[in-house]
Amino acid sequence: MTTPDDPQSYFKVGDNGRDRYSNPFYNVPLQYLPMNIEGMLLWAEHFLYRNGFYKQALNRIANYFITSLSFDCDDEEAKKTYQETFDKLNWKQVCAKAGLNLLAYGNEFITVNQGFYRYLACPECHKSTNIDKLNNYEFNKNKYSLTCLKCGYKGEHRCVDKPANDLDKIHIVHWPAKEIKIRHEETTGESEYFWDIPQQYAKKVMTKNNKFYSKKTPQIIFDCVFNKTMLSFNTKNFIHLKLDTPSTMRTDGKAIPPSMFIFEDFFMLQTLKRYNEVICFEDIAPFRVISMGDATNPAANPLLNQNGGVWSGAVDDMIEEHRRDPGSYHKFAFPINYQQLGGDGKNLAPVDMMENARNSILNALDVPVEMFQMSFQQQAAGPMLRMFENAWSVVPNNYNKLLNHIGDVVGHILGLPKAKISLIPITFADDMERKGVVSQLVSANAIARSELLKLYNFEYSDQVRKKMEEDRMVEEIQNEEKEKQEIAQATSTNLMQIL
Hints:
By secondary structure, the chain is α+β, with helices and mostly antiparallel strands.
């Protein structure tokens, strides 16, 4: 990673470079490589939007580790409330979105907002009225004005936001990483987080006399927009998840997006895609040419006596007639030539090179190509999944951190005792290997068959009863068919005797 302070001679050839080869590290992608974290986040967003396979690979990593929740709480009623609350908060979708943001940008910023009820208080009689019941107020520049229903005072009313203990009011917000500013102290690891409010959002919520944002937007945001300051997050309901970043790179508290470490691979892939795009425009459909035919007799050569404009008009009429009726017959006074130029785009398309570039990106992300394509063999599935799980162990660790944070905020809002919330660990790789070993032992009659059935959550005694019941049914059906055949045979024999 270069910085503006790096000497250019580190990447370029020196004064006496005529006797040396050019520096292979000073290549084209280096000219576009971002030098700061803001530029890296913009490029990470660009890669995510422009490459469907990349987004799908990140989605598969994020969703792979989402299993079931484990609630460690001594109070059974509180444990049940936690379970119901997390289901209402759609915790799986929250984790999946957090995982995608974490893998795409290297950072995920989340707040668990309690929600509020807004009241307008009269400065004269101090009557407070829920704003959801009002529509006759005026809103302008962060101020509310209306006529008090109790004392008749007409003018500015004080805005009061009261925290809501209603579960339906709790909302989890995923903040865009590029809009978050951090004040970070490297020696202690302490950080302060701020939201740099976008102008588009500020203009929207401050619209005069709007009856939606004036009711739903928190007052502190109105204050920040009006005073043109950033919003400071409360660390009690705010959490920053991030991936590890090499210690030599200073990023002011943010993590470097993983895509920056494979920037050149994305650059190569995009170059091939652009080349392929040109081929699709220029070489897929052939360029068709109609020209005057060559005559074998120079004395009767029509090219010598034919008007080019008249000839071209006749050809245009013929093409137009053919488009109207492809089955029509056409007449021409002398031979013409027809040529198709190009059309060999299929042979020129860099399909293999693009595939290799995509596979290089997947391998750099520790996503086995066979796993991405859903084509891995069962024999290799166990070791492959174990390596994959170990490579991305940071993902479930961040999920557990997030779930515990949500649990702490929810517990504080609802007045619940503290609980430890975590995901049940992934056991796919171990389970597959265990199933294969147990299956071999059962086949060799070395262990009881019930051990294999337990791996698939089957009760051995129930399966024995069902198997015996099936055998009885098969025997009864076979006996019925046998009786039918005997009756039919006896009937046929009696008819033969009568005849």
